[in-house]
């Protein structure tokens, strides 16, 4: 499982040199400089490392400098691209995963074995650090404390609730308290800017008709999925979110008919996870019904999960735009 913790397909070729900083946002170019320096520090000669639970010592990354970097910014500013670029620039052994994937790893291996499996790494990158579940947050925070004490360097991005993301600070006090004892080990890297997915690009195409969606799925054959939107949402309720990526195995294009507003928050959060996994895999979305920027209610967009919903809309619109090249 640890060997499979690598950047998703969309970011397999992400490099610092392929990141396109917005000239109007100097913090973006500064973030590249900070992360390049952090990556360079990971190539320092190894030192003896303390190992937990009585096993023999193993090589460690240099303990000079901060134990990690934390990428702080809104959605669509390229945090995941930069996190993946850091992973690609760093020497191994190294691991990259979302917060959910990390909790799944601990659930599958157990806490002790997860520490053992990761403590030999030079770098652990965690995308989309979540604050939704206090239990999971404390579990992973404890894991990160153990790994940092063992010399593993850490890098993270986060999706925090409104009011908890500190402007120019390390994700505000509430997040710092959740990652007990780690705050002093991290350097905060603030990344300002607008959503790059829509910067200077045309608007997403309007929804297609059911006939176009069905014809596209038929033309693409086995590489396309075809589902009614409401039926898909109902199916997601019966599948653990950790398995949403597996649902997309072998799929090249996602075809959906009858997109409608999402009625409840639990369903909306499941759709957010699916949107992330589709975006990771660069899957164009051909859809009929309601435009994706209207599927979440104003109440949802103004509530505690605002950032998640806005990210999902941004990504779904980008994937709908991608689909314009393959329909007709």
TrEMBL record:
Keywords from the UniProt entry: ATP-binding, Cell cycle, Cell division, Nucleotide-binding
Record has Transcription as a keyword: no
A Pfam family hit: AFG1_ATPase
Domain of life: Bacteria
This protein's name: Cell division protein ZapE
Organism: Streptacidiphilus cavernicola
GO BP annotation list: cell division
UniProt gene name: zapE
